[in-house]
Amino acid sequence: MTETATNSTATLNKFEKFKLEKDGLAVKQEIEQFAQIGWEAMDETDRDHRLKWLGVFFRPVTPGKFMLRMRTPSGILTSGQLRTLAEVVQRYGEDGNADITTRQNLQLRGIRIEDIPDIFRRFEQAGLTSVQSGMDNVRNITGSPVAGIDADELIDTRDLVQQVQDMITNSGEGNPAFTNLPRKFNIAIAGCRDNSVHAEINDIAFVPAFKDGVLGFNVLVGGFFSAKRCEAAIPLNAWVDPGQVVALCQAILVVYRDHGLRANRQKARLMWLIDEWGVERFRSAVEQQLGASLQKAAEKDEIAWDKRDHIGVHAQKQPGLNYVGLHVPVGRLFAQDMFELARIAEVYGSGELRFTVEQNVIIPNVSDSRLDLLLKEPLLERFSVHPATLERSLVSCTGSQFCNFALIETKNRALGLIRELEAEVSCSQPVRIHWTGCPNSCGQPQVADIGLMGTKARKDGKTVEAVDIYMGGKVGKDAHLGTCVMKSIPCDDLKPVLQNLLVEHFDAHLKEEAVTST
Ligand code: HEM
Ligand code: SF4
Fold it and tell me: Which CATH superfamily hosts domain 392-517?
């Protein structure tokens, strides 16, 4: 008997039980009441879990100050939308800020439940939504951050990404058809040649491929990370025309919803079902749900490049226009930065902004004649178009400042350490260093050149913050995951270890002053 067939109420874990008792999305009707009674009087399951169906996260590290996770399909926002978010952070987020995430998304902090009804009204006016962004829902859908403007792109994926989000969320209203998946779910659609969405770590990924001269997508399934197991996505052996993308996502989601394993949350991601069934049976079930047979995958896909980071000034496919990638250190934005970015996008571009999975911002549609002035903007002293080599590729999850799972502080430490290293080591090539505060791996250390995963270690008889070190992650063409190469390095001892790794594996050199002082 399969594990699926044993999904009786007797074996349900606490998450499955509370989802059956009351759908997560039901709290949408109760938001006004929650705002009136306040966070301390709320039912704990509503507060700690169900609110995540609306993107509202209780944060035990900052009780009473919630985190709001948006949905920004393909990472695209208008300046007006960013200004609305800046106002929310400024007006309602006490000590508020916002983080750009590794799913091209934004998380706002310091939000009080009392203000949520008003914030949601503002979102509605601005065409923003945070619905179904947490717990057992489909996360922000990623797409090429330069879709529609990349001179070398194959398929402009913006509309497809939006359509998939609209299907899943009922255009932001919330869609009970997909509010009780067995677990979280990630979808990415790449239309570019450099796999800028990290296709391999998504439950469904579409990568451009030609079949009989027609441009469409090969489909990958089952990629995921967890504390216990990390798997790259595998081929579904299917090629689809762009017009079939939404229907295929829907069919896969229904199969996963109805048959995915639910007994053990450690074994509930899509890949566990594919393991149990085999990819052939899974493919047949998807075809049955789709009501059509799938074409076999094209022999090869069109991912041919190493991954770009989009920082700096780049000519667009539209003559005379450029996109300008600004480096945002560890993705952290304050309200004033958000207002400034919105203004800059309006003054120099077309009033549009885009986030990347490296936690940076792109201003598209800057005309040649406006470039020089844009590059002189004071904000670019901090959000640089030519950041230092190591800092350029630094990525970090939230860490202990706001996240209760964290075993270590990440963002501030990552930035402090990289700046010290930058002063002591000269490195001619970017090295992608990713920090993640615990084995949940939100900062994706497995895709990094050097990944640092928070842990605890013993040093001089004391428990101290430490990291396990991962290496060998490759992104872009022939992407594959890195593995753990060193364990339990106390953070205080990390700098010389990283120096050695940079010198030995990335062609770096110790600067003279550093050599003489060691
Ligand atoms: C059981 C496993 C996991 C737990 C409990 C978990 C928990 C969390 C929490 C609490 C946050 C928000 C922290 C904050 O900023 O306050 C977060 C954010 C995030 N996590 Fe995880 N996480 C898990 C696994 C993963 C994995 C495997 C990935 C993918 C590699 C991932 C990707 C992300 C991303 C991208 C964000 C930022 C929000 C977004 O854009 O969706 N997480 N996670
Ligand atoms: S990796 Fe751990 S510390 Fe970092 S955001 Fe995820 S759960 Fe929090």
Answer: Sulfite Reductase Hemoprotein, domain 1 (3.30.413.10)
